[in-house]
Amino acid sequence: MDDWLNQCIREVKAGETEAFAQIVDAYKDKVYQVAFRMVGNAQEAQDVSQEAFIRAYTNIERYDVNRKFSTWLFRIATNLSIDRLRKKKPDFSLDAEVNGAEGLDGYAQLAATDALPDEQVVTLEWQASIQKEIDTLPPKYRAAIILKYMEDLSLQEMSEILDLPVATVKTHVHRGREALRKKLKKW
Amino acid sequence: MKHSDSIHRYFDGEMTQIEREQLYRHLEGCSECQEHYDEVKKSIALVQSASHIQAPKNFTENVMSALPQKKKKRTIAWKKWSKNHPVLVAAAVFLLFMSSMTWLNWTGMSGGEMAISGVGNFEVDQENNTVIIPEGEVIEGDLTVRNGDVDVQGEVHGDLTVINGEQYMASAGQVAGNIEEVNQVLSWLWYETKELFSNLSPDQED
């Protein structure tokens, strides 16, 4: 693994808090992206990804240097996301519309410019609609689809992140893919 | 094998070249499977086309300011050590406590006014901070003087203790018991300790 990352982790373990900023900088986009795709809106994605980094920091002693750091970090982030989704489960379907709108905000936040060209607005809306479809998947299938198709991870890595056997992960990918196929075929 | 299963195997990237060719051939003649295949392919493409999202501005700063304060390694080592040596820690705490108490008492005393305990006729010379036992006078019991000198011209039948001062003995003066001068913190501490024990043990009298 990168010497740079190992060096940072060693420093953080030794109490050099500042070294953690480099780790956050390097992984913030990946972690935020996973959290955003999982919870479906910018505010909660920010809460979840921030919490994920704080947990990584406080539990850095438990990180096994022989394993991939991003796997460990993704595992914390997906667990927190799934917990978050479980908590708001009761009003899930009622919220679907609202979630979609919040997803839009999430994309709007990407663009720093005040006035967006029309085609960019269309792209944002389209992106938000895809997120809205992802939001309707049950959390375990959602996690499988996000890690496989958005993060491009192997089944082995997914199995470590999700703490599930490879065969189970594969089944979740299949079911998630089938669910999405049915939702997206009208597109 | 069911065709939907083989489509899954195809998209899982688990098919051999031969299997893939078989599937393609099948799709040509089976519109249902072709449709299924196209739909899966499209949904994967749509999900993959979702643009990559970046973390909001100041994300790192926010995380860093939200981190709990972590102790440096040294403190952790000290903590571990102290867990393994509870007796030493207790002793250290006790010593610290005692010495601060002693210091407080000592400093509080040395700056304080003269204090005399004992019964008898003696004179107190405020100007010179001296207790004078005049010639011919007898102090029957013990006499203790703090923050002052003692000039013994008469007699003291008990012990004479002078804390933070000096005792002068005239040639005619007499002290039947022990004479003790306590000027140093340590000897004062020793004196206090002795006092404590002699007060505690009942058979000390007589």
TrEMBL record, chain A:
Highest taxon listed in the record's lineage: Bacteria
Domain RNA polymerase sigma-70 region: 24-89
UniProt entry keywords in alphabetical sequence: Sigma factor, Transcription, Transcription regulation
Transcription regulation is among the record's keywords: yes
Family: Belongs to the sigma-70 factor family. ECF subfamily.
Organism of provenance: Geomicrobium sediminis
InterPro entries, per database record: RNA_pol_sigma-70-like, RNA_pol_sigma-70_dom, RNA_pol_sigma-W_bacilli, RNA_pol_sigma70_r2, RNA_pol_sigma70_r4_t2, RNA_pol_sigma_r2, RNA_pol_sigma_r3/r4-like, WH-like_DNA-bd_sf
Xref: Pfam families: Sigma70_r2, Sigma70_r4_2
Residue stretches making up the RNA polymerase sigma factor 70 region 4 type domain: 129-180
Protein name: RNA polymerase sigma factor SigW
